[in-house]
């Protein structure tokens, strides 16, 4: 059965005064240390003794000593109070400068293509901040799971979140290797994809993602089939280029730019490419943002272009062709 535990109101009142008197064996010196009057110290200790129900000090005109109850109270209260003071200092430090553990929830697919260069530069700029990246396919509840912030595709940012853009909007493009297109021909309309081999994406809920298109302003989705199912963009990019080069893939355009320029991939169905809102750093709206998160937000914003979007170099080379042994 669940029990309710509460701390009595004022349970810590007078403890600091008691500890100071016990340390100095003097009400007058304790008052001087704490910057109050001796009568105020005496009153605080008296209230503490009444609340506890036992005398803590023996007082004479010449000296102050501890009773047995006072000795036992001191042995437990002193380390506990010192720990509370230390805890307050630690918390105060985290509230005054960027330090501590910054926990980020990130889609696994975004880590290699967007986050790594940003995190590297942030860690160099803020050495007192430890960054923990929890990469997964699932969209977790940031507040419930104890995350400071998350990185999300724009369509998955909750309405009650504060969102900071990390990339401009980008197109989802269909690409294929020149070898594939030479053998199978170019699809001219989205419906043509039903006759092509396509690389598919597994969503976090387990469903296979449909391919999305914009047909003269109308959003359409196509169910495709093909030889590979993946859950991250670099795997799909590498498969489209080399491993399963005889297939098409639908990917974020920034990820494909270098390979298109190098001739490893070719655009198809460009006029049907839908525009996605981009990638955002999001966090629960709060009155006070801890300095570690504020520093990360500012770091993201410092990498913006003139249009207010973060300019991050997408590293697609890791998904390029590998040398064969």
TrEMBL record:
<dbReference type="Pfam" id="PF00126">
    <property type="entry name" value="HTH_1"/>
</dbReference>
<comment type="similarity">
    <text>Belongs to the LysR transcriptional regulatory family.</text>
</comment>
<dbReference type="InterPro" id="IPR036388">
    <property type="entry name" value="WH-like_DNA-bd_sf"/>
</dbReference>
<feature type="domain" description="HTH lysR-type">
    <location>
        <begin position="16"/>
        <end position="67"/>
    </location>
</feature>
<dbReference type="InterPro" id="IPR058163">
    <property type="entry name" value="LysR-type_TF_proteobact-type"/>
</dbReference>
<dbReference type="Pfam" id="PF03466">
    <property type="entry name" value="LysR_substrate"/>
</dbReference>
<keyword id="KW-0238">DNA-binding</keyword>
<dbReference type="GO" id="GO:0043565">
    <property type="term" value="F:sequence-specific DNA binding"/>
</dbReference>
<dbReference type="GO" id="GO:0006351">
    <property type="term" value="P:DNA-templated transcription"/>
</dbReference>
<dbReference type="GO" id="GO:0003700">
    <property type="term" value="F:DNA-binding transcription factor activity"/>
</dbReference>
<dbReference type="InterPro" id="IPR000847">
    <property type="entry name" value="LysR_HTH_N"/>
</dbReference>
<protein>
    <submittedName>
        <fullName>LysR family transcriptional regulator</fullName>
    </submittedName>
</protein>
<keyword id="KW-0805">Transcription regulation</keyword>
<dbReference type="InterPro" id="IPR036390">
    <property type="entry name" value="WH_DNA-bd_sf"/>
</dbReference>
<dbReference type="InterPro" id="IPR005119">
    <property type="entry name" value="LysR_subst-bd"/>
</dbReference>
<keyword id="KW-0804">Transcription</keyword>
């Amino acid at each position: 059965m669940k029990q309710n535990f509460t701390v009595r109101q004022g349970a810590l009142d007078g403890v600091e005064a008691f500890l100071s008197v016990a340390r100095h064996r003097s009400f007058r010196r304790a008052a001087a240390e704490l910057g109050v009057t001796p009568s105020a110290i005496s009153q605080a200790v008296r209230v503490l003794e009444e609340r506890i129900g036992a005398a803590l000090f023996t007082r004479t005109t010449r000296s102050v000593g501890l009773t047995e109850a006072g000795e036992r109270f001191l042995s437990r209260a002193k380390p506990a109070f010192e720990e509370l003071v230390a805890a307050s200092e630690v918390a105060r430090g985290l509230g005054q400068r960027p330090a501590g553990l910054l926990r980020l929830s990130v889609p696994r697919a975004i880590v290699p293509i967007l986050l790594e260069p940003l995190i590297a530069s942030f860690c160099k700029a803020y050495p007192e901040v430890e960054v923990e990246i929890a990469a997964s396919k699932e969209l977790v509840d940031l507040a419930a799971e104890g995350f400071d912030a998350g990185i999300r595709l724009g369509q998955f940012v909750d309405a009650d979140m504060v969102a900071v853009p990390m990339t401009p909007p980008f197109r989802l493009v269909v690409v294929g290797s020149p070898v594939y297109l030479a053998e199978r021909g170019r699809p001219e309309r989205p419906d043509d994809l039903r006759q092509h081999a396509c690389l598919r994406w597994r969503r976090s809920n387990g469903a296979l993602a449909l391919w999305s298109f914009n047909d003269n302003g109308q959003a359409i989705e196509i169910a495709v089939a093909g030889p590979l199912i993946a859950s991250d963009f670099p795997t799909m990019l590498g498969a489209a280029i080399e491993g399963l080069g005889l297939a098409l893939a639908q990917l974020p355009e920034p990820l494909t730019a270098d390979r298109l320029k190098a001739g490893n991939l070719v655009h198809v169905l460009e006029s049907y490419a839908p525009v996605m809102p981009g990638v955002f750093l999001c966090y629960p709206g709060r009155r006070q943002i801890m300095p570690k998160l504020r520093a990360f937000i500012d770091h993201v914003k410092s990498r913006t272009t003139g249009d207010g979007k973060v300019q991050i170099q997408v590293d697609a080379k890791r998904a390029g062709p590998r040398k064969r042994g």
